[in-house]
TrEMBL record:
Pathway: Cofactor biosynthesis; adenosylcobalamin biosynthesis. Pfam families: TP_methylase. Its EC number is 2.1.1.130. This is Precorrin-2 C(20)-methyltransferase. InterPro entries: 4pyrrol_Mease, 4pyrrol_Methylase_sf, 4pyrrole_Mease_sub1, 4pyrrole_Mease_sub2, Cbl_synth_CobJ/CibH_dom, CobI/CbiL, CobI/CbiL/CobIJ_dom, Precorrin_MeTrfase. The keyword Transcription regulation does not apply. Keywords: Cobalamin biosynthesis, Methyltransferase, S-adenosyl-L-methionine, Transferase. GO terms for biological process: methylation. GO terms for molecular function: precorrin-2 C20-methyltransferase activity. It comes from the Bacteria. It comes from Actinomycetospora aeridis.
Length: 495
């Protein structure tokens, strides 16, 4: 008859936050195991010290913690294997083993590494505990999330740019494992535009507990057992004090318009700067299809409109900003490429010179389509819109002919729509006067969307009826190469 393995969460530090079940198991255990660094001190053991008596204690000492080593993961794998073998010896002898874990055993806890090595061989029970994140929120007296908000928990060990992107893309966050990572975490919060919202909690629930505005914390004073918290924005915006503060601030609040590039479609193509701009906005303005791509935020107002009212949309956004609102005008791809940046800047220059306007770039549709097949835009190229809604067709023809004669690759936007069905054929026939019929043409449709298709055809074989408004065409130059199906590149060297 083997013993039972228990993974027991003992909470964030205050022994009175242990569950009754956790206390009973520690008191009745044959063996109590805990992890510690080489100095031998264990926060988990300190929490349960008053419940220890005649139990056998197994101190599981990490071979490395934060110091560098040639094979960090290898050293830890060997350590967990050896620790599991030590505990297995007790279990095989019929002794119950309680592995205590600060916080919760399955929340960034070391117990999980023993669990995965032993749970398939021995009876096992996991007892949850109060996490440091929950204790930190309690220490701050601030809800983590409210209503439909999303909480993201992140390790501070992530690269700063990834942290920034994730922080900008969530409603509320907790960042664990600070200590030596604190400087990078603070930089990520600043990049994401969330530093002013961030709080710092050290050793939550203990006598050494400390809270502060994270921006005011000295990096050299930060221990590993601390948490960065960006709490609920809904709560912050809906308390009586917050409403009074907002009303007072709005009296002298300087609004602005930020034109934000959302990229071609996929969420991971949104830049950290764009995420931060969206997170900071009080109003989101844009074409209905594009505003739908912005995550719902209950504190923001969304103003969606038709695709053919760019100037009106720009004026509306600038009016909001003149009234003190922070406004994000959203565009697909890059806002400076046949999109809203030009409209906003033009209207602002004429009628709103007092309103600040910023443009946040994004990954363009041309870049996204080109990347799918290699490097068709690897040398000089031109971007041309086939739409004749804002310029006459004879201008489009002259520009197409000039670029074709100059022998550059062409990224062709807005090739067709429901009301414009003949331009693709006209453009193809014009280009065939300058280009070989076998010139590769990349036909990218709904790139990054649910109906994405990318294929390469000969210029002579381009079928106009298969091209719509969601399609972008890349026509190669005479130097462009098509070495394999689905691969096109234009060499940087000419001749």
């Amino acid at each position: 008859m083997t013993g039972t393995l228990y993974g027991v969460g003992v909470g964030p530090g205050d022994p009175s936050l242990m569950s009754v079940r956790a206390v009973d198991l520690v008191r009745g255990a044959d063996v109590v195991a805990y992890h510690c660094a080489r100095h031998g001190r264990s926060n988990a053991r300190a929490i349960v010290a008053q419940y220890l008596g005649t139990q056998v204690e197994e101190q599981l000492t990490y071979p490395v913690t934060t110091e560098s080593t040639d094979d960090y993961q290898g050293a830890l794998d060997a350590f967990y294997a050896e620790a599991a073998a030590r505990l297995a010896a007790h279990l095989d002898a019929g002794r119950d083993v309680v592995v205590i874990a600060e916080g919760d055993p399955f929340f960034y806890g070391s117990y999980m590494h023993l669990h995965k090595r032993l749970a398939d061989r021995y009876p096992t029970e996991v007892v949850p505990g109060v996490t440091s994140v929950a204790a930190a929120a309690a220490a701050l007296g601030r809800p983590l999330v409210e209503r439909d908000e999303v909480l993201t928990v992140l390790p501070g060990t992530l690269p700063s740019d990834e942290l920034a992107a994730r922080l900008a893309d969530t409603d509320a966050a907790a960042v664990m494992k600070l200590g030596r990572t604190f400087t990078n975490v603070r930089a990520a919060l600043a990049t994401a535009g969330r530093l002013d919202e961030a709080h710092y909690v050290e050793r939550a629930s203990t006598e050494a507990q400390r809270t502060a505005a994270l921006a005011d914390v000295e990096p050299g004073s930060v221990p590993y057992f601390s948490v960065a918290v960006v709490p609920s924005r809904v709560h912050a915006d809906t308390t009586p004090a917050a409403r009074e503060e907002t009303a007072a601030a709005m009296a002298g609040h300087a609004g602005e318009v930020v034109v934000v590039g959302l990229g071609p479609g996929a969420r991971d193509r949104l830049t950290p700067e764009a995420s931060a701009a969206l997170a900071a906005a009080e109003d989101v303005v844009g074409y209905t299809t594009y505003t739908a791509r912005v995550p719902v935020n209950p504190r923001q107002r969304v103003h969606a409109s038709d695709n053919k009212v760019e100037s009106e949309r720009a004026a509306f956004a600038l009016d909001l900003a003149r009234g003190g609102r922070r406004v994000a005008v959203v565009s697909s791809g890059d806002p400076g490429v046949f999109a809203m940046a030009s409209a906003v800047v033009e209207v602002a220059a004429a009628d709103y010179p007092d309103v600040p306007v910023r443009v946040v770039p994004g990954v363009s549709a041309a870049q996204a389509v080109a990347a799918r097949v290699g490097a068709p835009l690897g040398h000089d190229y031109a971007m041309i819109s086939l739409s004749d809604r804002l310029k006459p067709w004879d201008v489009v023809e002259r520009r197409l002919a000039a670029v074709a004669d100059a022998d550059m690759a062409i990224a062709m936007y807005n090739p067709a729509s429901r009301s414009r069905t003949w331009q693709v054929e006209a453009a193809r026939d014009l280009l065939l006067k300058y280009r070989d019929p076998g010139t590769p043409v990349v036909v990218g449709r709904d790139v990054d969307g649910p109906e994405e298709s990318v294929r390469v055809v000969r210029l002579a074989d381009l079928v106009p009826g298969e091209v719509d408004m969601r399609t972008l065409l890349i026509i190669g130059a005479s130097t462009s190469r098509w070495p394999a199906p689905g691969t096109v590149y234009t060499p940087r060297r000419y001749g």
